[in-house]
Model the fold of this input.
Amino acid sequence: MFAVDIDGTIAEGRPAALLDYFRETCRLALVDIPEDITWWDIFDLPEVVAYRKLHRKRYQRIRENVMGSLLVLRACTPVPGAVAQLRRVSQREEVKYVTIRGDDLPSQKTTRAWLAQLGFPNSDSVVFCRSFFQKIAQVMREPGEHVIIDDRYAQLVEALHEVEEQAGDDPRYQRMIEGARRRLTIVAFGATALAEQDLFPGVRTVALPSWDQFDECCGALLREPIERGA
Ligand SMILES: [Mg+2]
Done:
């Protein structure tokens, strides 16, 4: 199975929608914003920073809920090449989406509708998780070999380290680590090279700088085409 993360891997948040989200939730004017502002720069705008300092708890809730905002979700754009590559992958492997987006019903519906509308394969097959640990656990629960494609691969590796720390006391965690070593490949989306801290000993990890490079970086992970009608 190919378990594909959504945000930052196949979907990009649109800065204009994030600005509107802050205008609405924080009641900020946010005028004279440079047109080419990036998603991450918005969090450092003086008005946003001032709001954060004044309303710490409220800001934290607002910040955590960005990807639970329908306004933001609907405005996402696909990462270039993602639709075409995943359609090809889906001819050989089961494709699933595994995300830590908000798991309330409207967010779930919006996410599935967005995937379908843009032509992503298997758009109904989305697993909503609460943590990176849960992502791995959900994927490894099923038998067979699995590939997780994720832009936050470092967090996946961190989660594996946490599981390993607890494995001494719990055979379920031991099985999870053993399973990951035998059956899991992490595809580090957006990475051109992998540093030591991006790797978990024994778990195959592959860097995938962009979807256009899928064949050269990940082609070997695909099964041979299934022979039909033989
Ligand atoms: Mg992501």
Remarks:
- The longest strand covers residues 184-189.
- The beta strands are 2-4, 11-12, 77-78, 95-99, 126-128, 146-150, 184-189, 204-208.
- The domain at 2-10+77-221 is CATH 3.40.50.1000 (Rossmann fold).
- The CA atoms of residues 11 and 78 lie 5 Å apart.
